[in-house]
Amino acid sequence: VSNNAGVDDFGLGLLLKKHQIRRMISSYVGENAEFERQYLTGELEVELTPQGTLAERLRAGGAGIPAFFTATGYGTLIHEGGAPIKYNSDRKVDIASKPRESRVFNGQNYIMEEAITGDYALVKAWKADRAGNL
Hints:
Blueprint: H1 12-17, E1 23-26, H2 33-40, E2 45-48, H3 51-63, E3 67-70, H4 77-80, E4 84-87, E5 93-96, E6 102-105, E7 108-114
């Protein structure tokens, strides 16, 4: 899980070159040529999610909240399903996203997003305080 795919020779780009990433959940894929190549040839699974939704999925997971509703993404491929997660070698969709549950609250349409929980996190920061703020 990362908000972006990094660049070719730094960060996640180095892990991609060594084929150490099988699936990415990201909000922005950037200009990483190796990422694009692996995704389009079926070597890499990618789940694109809006930046704010990605942040909230991680926050919810850390807070023990299994899922939440958001208006972001309603009426799109994220909501309706079918967004390509993985291609096969013929560049046809091998794995597509599943439709999200939707509900109406106070006349507004929402879709359900599941939380993301991780076993560990790698964080790069220039400075930290004793409370752990980066």
